Amino acid sequence: MNRRALLFLVVLVATFAVTAQFYRNSTPKPGEASITVYCAAGLKKPVDAIAARYREELGVEVHLQYGGTGTLLGAIRVAKQGDLFIAADDGSLEDARKADSIREVVPLVRQHPVIAVRTGNPKGIQSAKDLWRDDVRVALANPDAASIGRSVRSALGGDWEALASHAAVMKTTVTEIASDLSIGAVDAAIIWDSTVPQFAGLAAVEVPELQAKVEKASAAVLTASTQSPAALRFARYMAAPEKGGAIFKANGFEPIGGDHWAVTPEMILYSGGVNRLAIEKLLHQFSEREGVTVTTVFNGCGILCATMKTMGDSSNPKFPDAYYACDLCFVPPVAEQFPEAVILTETEIGIVVKKGNPLGIHTLADLAKPGLKVGLCNAEQSTLGYMTRGMLQSSGLAESVRANVRVEVPTADLLITQMRAGALEAAIVYRVNAAPQAEHLDYLPIDHPGAKAVQPFSVRADSPNRQLAGRLLAFLQAHRGSFEEAGFSWRGDEAPIKSNKIVVPDWLKPPVPAAESK
Amino acid sequence: MIRLSGIHHVAGAFRLEDISFSVPAATYAVLMGRTGSGKTTLVEILCGLRQPTAGTIWIGDRDVTDLQPGLRGIGYVPQDGALFPTMKVREQIGFALQIRNRGADEIAERVKELSTQLGIAHLLDRLPPNLSGGERQRVALARALAARPKVLLFDEPLSALDEDTRDEIAAVLKQTQRAHGVTTLHITHSRREAAQLADTIFHLEAGSVREEPR
Amino acid sequence: MTEPARQRRSRRVDPLWLALGAITGAYLLFILAMLGATATYTSPGHLWRALGSPPIQYSIQLSLVSCTLTAMLSLLLAVPVGFLLSRARFRGKALLDAALDIPIVLPPMVLGLFLLILFQTPLGRAIDRILPFTYTVAGVVLAQFVIGAAFAVRTMRGTFDHLSSRPEDVAMTLGCSRARAIWLVTLPAAGRGMFAAASIAWARSLGEFGPILVFAGATRKKTEVLPTTVWLELTVGNLEAAIAVSILMVLLAVVVLASVRIAGERI
User: Which end of chain B is more exposed for a tag (fewer CB within 10 A), N or C?
Assistant: First the structure.
C-alpha cells in the first residue's frame, strides 16, 4: 500500500507541476498587455485573423470569447470583466447601453439577412414564401441568443411566430445553423450574407423583406473594462480600412470604414476661446480614455477661420479634424469642409459694469454716454467682437460707441481683467465671462435679437480621424454638466443641422475673406 | 479471565440489559444464542468496537472498559475469518507484531512458530482468495495469536465450513486453547459445538446472560 | 421414437444468452455505426493535419494534463467522502447524499454559470485576485473537478459499501487506531474501486464542455481543451477538422483508459 501511495503522490505532484505550467501560460502576466473581447459567433473568422495580425504588429494578446450576441451579453452582465463586446446587431447594442454595460461604440461592418441554401438551390427556393413549403426544412437562430434571430424577427414582424413554429430547428448561433445547412440536415437557413461564404457549398437567396434589414456589427467598450485605451485601440484597428477593414473584406464582409490606423492618433480641434472654460477638462479626460492626443487651438473664431482659409483645402495635415465655433455665423465660411454641425450650447451677450452700476448704464445706447470708458472685442479677431459690431451697427450706435472705446482686445477675458483693474467702466462680454465675477461686476442683458451666441460643434467630413472626432462629440454631449457649470445653456440634445442651411442675420454678414468676395 | 458486569446497550429496538457473567481464566467458554439475539453486538462491545451505555469489562485483572480495542489484549476471530484482502498469509500473521514495531527477525520467528503449529506453513505466500474455508480460519487464528493475547474471541468460527472441516477446525481451536492457556469465549448457535468444545456454557436470551449449570 | 441425427453431446445454447448477446451486439453496432459514419466525413489526411496544428496539439496536452489532475484530485476527495457516506450513520444522511449528487444532476452549462457567479461574490473575488480562476487553466480544472468528483464519490461509496468492515475491526483489535486500520487494510482492498473512480472522473473530464466554456472560456492556446476545440472548429464551419479532433478524442480515451486498466491489474 505504501508503495502505491507513494506512486500516487509522485504522479500527483508531477501532474500538478505540469498543470501549473499551463496555468501560468493562461493567466495574464502583470507586464504583458492583453485584452479580453467577447465576439459574436458570425464574426469569428475575420476577427480571429485580425487579432492574430494585431498581436504580430503590437505584441498585444487578444483573448477572444465567441458565442451568440445575446448569450455573450448575458455572460458580460454576470462576469463584469472584459474590455470589448462585438455585437452583430444594433438592437442588442441598445440593450447593452440601457443596461449600462457599454460605453464607446465603433461600427465595423454592415450585414443583412439572406436565405441560405446549398449550392444549386436543390429545393428551388426563391422567396420567403418558399420557406413555408412542407418539403423545406428551415433552421433559424434564437432571437434572444443570436443577432441574426433578433434581426429576422424584427424584419418579419407578425410572421415570425408562425415561421418559428414551422422551423425544423432553432439554434443559438448563426454559425450553428449554417453548419446544419452545410451538412444537409436542413434545406434552408436564414443567416447573414457574410456568413454564406464561410461555409462550404452554400449560396444566398436575396429576398426584399430581409434585404432591407441592414444591421451594423459594432465593437463596444465595456463599462467594466479597466483599460479603455487598449480596448479602443483594438477597436480602431478593426475599423481601420487598411487593417481590419481589409481582412473583413477578404472574408466577404462589407466594412463600414473607420479612421485610418495610427497607434496613437492625433487629432486637431479648433475651438473658440469662450469654450475653453467648459471643455478643457473634458478634452483631457477624453484623450486619457481613448489613448489619443487632442491638440486644441483656442482662439478667436475670426482668426481660426482665416487660418483655415490660408491652409487652402483639407489636404493640409494641419487642417483641424473638428471645429467648435463661438457662434453659428462662423460656420458658413468653412461649410465646405464642415457640412454638418451639432449645436451644443448657447450663451448671452451683455454689458458688464462696476458693481452697483454707479454710472447707471442700462442699454446699448447708454454706452455712448460721453466720457465713458468702454472696452470691446476686436471684430476681426473674435466672434464676440464681430457680433458686437453687428449689433451696434444695426442699432445705429456704431459711431457713437466707437468714440468711447478705449481698448480693443482679442478675447473677453482681457476685458474682464481691465474691468476689475478699473481701467474700464463698461464692456461687452459673454455672460459666461461675467458669471464668475458676480461679486465684483454687474451683468446687464442687452435687448437685441443678436445678443446671443450659439456654439456649434462640427466634424470635418473628410477627416482621417472622423470617427474619433465623432466620439469626441458624443463624449461632450454626454457631459452636459460641465457646460452648465461653466454657465452655458445646454442645447446639445437637438438634431444636427446642415451648415449650408445656417441663416445668418443681416447684421452679421459673413466676414469677407481676403481672397474673394462673391 | 473475562468479566462483564452490568453491561447495558440499546440499538434501536434491540436491548442488552444488565449483562453480567464471568469466564474463568484459561477456560473455554461457549456463549449460545439464537441468531439476532445480540451475540455479535456483545462481541463488539467486548472488543471495544462498540460502546456500552453502562457497565464494565474486565480482562485479566484490568478494567478495559475505556480502553481502545488495540490495547485490550484480545485476539478476535470473526465469522469467515475476515482476513486482510490484499495481504499474504505471512503478513497477516505478522501484522500485530508489525504494528508494535517489533524486529523483522522476531516477526519471522513468531510467524514460523504459529504457522507450523496450525499446519499452514506451506501457505505463507498465499493470498486470501486462494485459501479454502478451513485454511482461512487457521490463518485467522494464527493472526489472532501473534501478539499473545490474554483472551480469544471466536464469533461463529465454524458456521461457514462444511461438516468435515468443521470437526477439523474445532479440534484445532480446542488444541490451541489448551496449548496457549488462553481464556476463550466462543460464540455460536450450535449445540453440537458447545457440547464439543465448552468447559462452560452461557446462554444469551431476552437480553440477558445466564450460565448453564454443568 | 427415432433420435434426431444430431449428437446428444452438443449442448443447446440457452436462448437467454442469445438474446443478451443480440442486445449487446446491437448496442455496440450502434456506437460503431456512429463512429463509422462520422469517420467517412474525414480522412487520415485530416487527422494528420489536425495532429500537426499547434492549437490542437496544445489542446491535446491541456486535456491530458487537466483530466489527469482532475482525476487524481477527485480521487483524493472521493475516498474520504465515499467512506463517510458508506460507513457513518447519522441523521440527514439521505439529504447529504442528495446534496452531493447535485453536480451530476445540473445541466453542465448551468454549473459553469454557478461557478462564474460564485467568483463574483466578495469572497470569490478575493480568491480570484490572489489566484485567478475565471478564464484560466485553474478554472478548467475546477470545472472538471466539480463533476468528476461527484462521480468519483459515487463510485467510492459503492466500493466501500461492498467492503466488509470486519477486517478493519480485526486490525483494530490487533493494535491499530481506526485510521491506521483503514490505511493498512481497507484502502488497499478498495484499490480496484479507486482505479474505477479515477477512471470515471478522467473520462467524464475529457468530455466536459459546458462548464468549461462558460467559466474558463475557450481561448485558443490558453484554456482550450479537446471538446472546446471541436466546438470552435464547428462554429467556423470547419466540419472536417471538428470531426478529426472528435475521432482523436475517442482514440485518446480508448488508449488511456485501456492502459490504466492494464496498469491497474499490475500494480
Answer: C
